[in-house]
Structures are given as C-alpha cells and as structure tokens.
Amino acid sequence: MAGGTQTNNFNDTPTQLRLAVIGAGYWGPNIIRNFFDNRECDLVAVCDRDAKRLSQLPAQIQRQVTLLDDASRVFEDSSIDAVAIVTDIDSHRVLAEAALTAGKHVFVEKPLATSAEDCLFLGKLSQQVKKHLMVGHTFIYNPAVAHLKQTISKPDFGETLYLHAQRLNLGRLQVRVNALWSLAVHDVAIALELFDELPSSVSATGHAYILPGVEDVTFVSLHFPSGKMAHIHTSWLDPQKRRQVTVVGSRQMVVYDDVSLDQKIVIYDKGIDKVLKDGSKPEFQNFSEFQYLIRTGDMHIPHISFTEPLKVETQHFIDCALGRHPKPKTGWEEGCQVVSVLEAAQVSLQKGGIPVQIQYLLGEKVS
Description:
Layout: E1 17-22, H1 28-37, E2 41-47, H2 51-55, H3 59-64, E3 66-68, H4 72-76, E4 82-85, H5 92-101, E5 105-109, H6 116-129, E6 133-136, H7 143-153, E7 160-170, H8 179-195, E8 201-207, E9 217-223, E10 229-235, E11 237-249, E12 253-257, E13 265-275, E14 291-300, H9 309-321, H10 332-350, E15 356-357
Parallel strand pairs: 1-2, 1-4, 2-3, 4-5, 5-6, 7-10
Antiparallel strand pairs: 7-11, 8-9, 8-15, 9-10, 11-12, 12-13, 13-14
Helix pairs in contact: 1-9, 5-6, 6-10, 7-8, 8-10
C-alpha cells in the first residue's frame, strides 16, 4: 500500500482520495462498490476479520485492492487519506477514534455510535485533528427525500402538521441491535431533516417476539416544540416490504414511497378548509362561526431524476475530504442529534412507552 494522494499540476489540491474500507459484511459491499467505481477515489484496501467475506467480494476488487484482516495496518499506513467504517455499531467508537488519531478523514455507517457522549467525543477529536467525520445517513442523500423537503417547504403545502413513517419487511433479523437502532434511525434522520427542528420528547413501545431482549417491532412518537409530530413504525415481522413516509400539511399531503419504481413522490391536493356557511374565509372568532369542508383536488406525480443515494453520499464524502466542502451534510453534529433521539427512545422503550425528554449535548440543530 505504498504511494500517496495524487495531485494536479497547478496546485496542491488532491485530485484523488486514497481510501480504505473496514467491514465487508451485509452493507459493506455496497459501500466498497461505490468507492471502487468512483474515479476520484483510489480504494487501496478492504479490511475484515472474516476471510470468507473478503473472498466473496467481486474478483476485480480482489485483484486490485489489498485485502486485510487487521485494521491496525490501515491506521498505520500514512499514505491512506480516509477510512470508511462499515462494521457493527458497538465497534464504531473504537475504530473511528483510531482512524482520526491516525490523521484520517472518517466515514462511519449509521448510527455514528451507541451513545451521544461517544458521538461528541469523536466530533471533538475530529476538530482537534482537523479531519472530516461523516455519518452514513443514506436517505438524506436520496433525491426523492430532497424533493420531499422542497415540496413541504412551498407555500402551496401550507403548514406542516405531522409525519408518519413505515419501515417494514419480513427479515432481516438481527441479534446485536433492535429495530429501533437498525431501522428507525433512518426515519429519525429524515424527520429531523424535513422539519429542520429537534424533537423535545419521545415515547416508544415495542416487543421482542423472536429473540428475547431484541425488539423486532417498534412504534416511536416524536414531539416537536412547534407542535409537529412524527410517528415511526419499524418491524422485521411484516408480510410486505414498505419504506414509506407520509407528510400531512394544512393545504396538501405528500407520500414518499421508496419501494415504488415510478411513483417515488405523490402530492395530494387534499385538506380540510375552514369556511363560513356563505363560503367566505374571514378571520374566525369562535368555533360556532365556521364549518369544516373537506377539499379533494388533483394528484401530482413529479418526475425525479434518480441517482443511487449511496453514490451521492460517497461522492459527498470524497468532496469533503478533498476540500470542496467545509463540512459534511451529515456530519458528526447531525449524527450526535440522531443518536440522542435514539437513546431517549430506548429509555422509553424499556420503561413501557413513557414520554422521555431528549437531552442534546450540542444544543440546537447545526445549520
């Protein structure tokens, strides 16, 4: 793994990022593929303690990339600029700390760590060593989610009222983390992105039907200071695969269906208007002055130019590491906020669903 970052002939700005990936398990091959296929990235090493996982990588990658079973060799190699960590959640803190201490830019698959304190520690360390620390909240880089945010930000949508998310499937069961930390993390990140606001409290219920102590179905309710609410349902025990987010506004409603091939976003011109009996809409003084009118209008399916979110996400990390952005869109601050919500939800889950106030180590959402 000799060599160094390539530079152009005009200045010292790197033009290619030398990167190593740690973790070739379930999600690792997807990360590996995207970095390997990116011309601005030189994937020099893939590390995993399981030799079988490495042997299952595409032959082209096996021929061109150094395969390792010891992560310390990645950290010790000064020619490696950045490290992507795609391992079990409980190893994120240790591996990210070692990579940052070795002077590498670091990408960590979601969630950033198992506690907000660990997230804050890693964030401060990244600032000390002046390296980027980015968390893999993949759906934030989904073009459909970006279009969803644009839709609810328009005046035609009215006031955003609440969000309902479903992330369901039959399998893949896990033994180290429950559905809250494995699945709900996505929709918590989406809710914070769409509302641009931090929830003040959370309540969560669920049950471990298959493996004792590992909840395979959860229901999470987030309450925001503005009055908005987000309800998130996750399960590994559902007959249908569903990844759907519905946002209800005072004038319109919109559904984001990640499973759909041609209707990722559907906007409904539906709502409930407050009108007087003569049809006018003045300022109302009391309830007796108006009646409710259900309004049903057109349905709109916008065209979305879709790019694989992982491709967008990995390119963004490369751009940050090569100095093109001052900070990642999903940096350690955003990662810390999501983990703060998950921690509080886990407490509520263990206490039978009682509301739990969320404590943020960073204060307000970092813009």
